[in-house]
Amino acid sequence: MKKILTVVLLCMTLCVSSQEHKLSTASEFINRSSYVQINMDENEKAIFKSGFGETVSFYPSEITDLKMNTKMLGLQVESVYIIGQQGMASVSTKEVAWVGMEEIDDLVIWFENYVIPNLESSAGKKKTLKYIFNCEELTLKFEIYNNTQVFSVILNYSNFPDKYFWTEARVKDIPKVVTALKYLQAKR
């Protein structure tokens, strides 16, 4: 009986540890803090709206642990997307992911070296070109299908894994994200 109980406990431990998510340093800081204040800079945010009424916003933020009086910077990514219909109204949800400062420099390089130079490019007839950046809590994609460009923001730990934000119409606004990222870099 002891062996069976030990095996069951071991299996449960392995299942729980495999479900743990790798969080950004900003999320870890928030989770460790008893009292938290988050100052999101509305003046420096980058926001994208899709034709479906979904949005994703990139907020440079200062996070304060009020009890310990310590601070850190991070980028809050807030995604609002439609998850269903109720009568004639759409049902939406809002989820948040964080990008830690240790990921910001590489994210700026990705945008400046690979995405922005290709905003006017096409992949060619029957060709696809994809640029993907994997953060701890989200994945960014810039894809070119023939002459069509799509920017996608996918939260890695969403409660609705089949839902994510994407836009074709607002691709030209991608440099606004870089502006928000550089604002954070300057505050270091």
Describe this structure in words.
The termini are far apart. Helix content is 29%, strand content 40%. It has four helices and nine strands; from the N terminus they run H-H-E-E-E-E-E-H-E-E-E-E-H. Strand 2 and strand 3 form a beta hairpin. Strands 1, 2, 3, 4 and 5 form a five-stranded antiparallel β-sheet that branches. Residues 1-18 have low confidence and may be disordered. Helix 3 (101-115) packs antiparallel against helix 4 (174-187). The longest helix has 18 residues, at 2-19. The protein is α+β, with helices and mostly antiparallel strands.
Key features of this structure:
29% helix, four-stranded antiparallel beta sheet, 40% strand, 4 helices, disordered N terminus, alpha+beta, five-stranded antiparallel beta sheet
Give the structure's gist in a few sentences.
This protein is an alpha+beta fold and 188 residues long. The protein contains 4 helices and 9 strands.
Helix content: 25-40%
- Give the structural class: alpha+beta
N- to C-terminal distance: 57 Å
Number of strands: 9
Biggest sheet details: 5 strands, antiparallel
Give the SSE string: HHEEEEEHEEEEH
The helix tally amounts to 4
Low-confidence stretches: 1-18
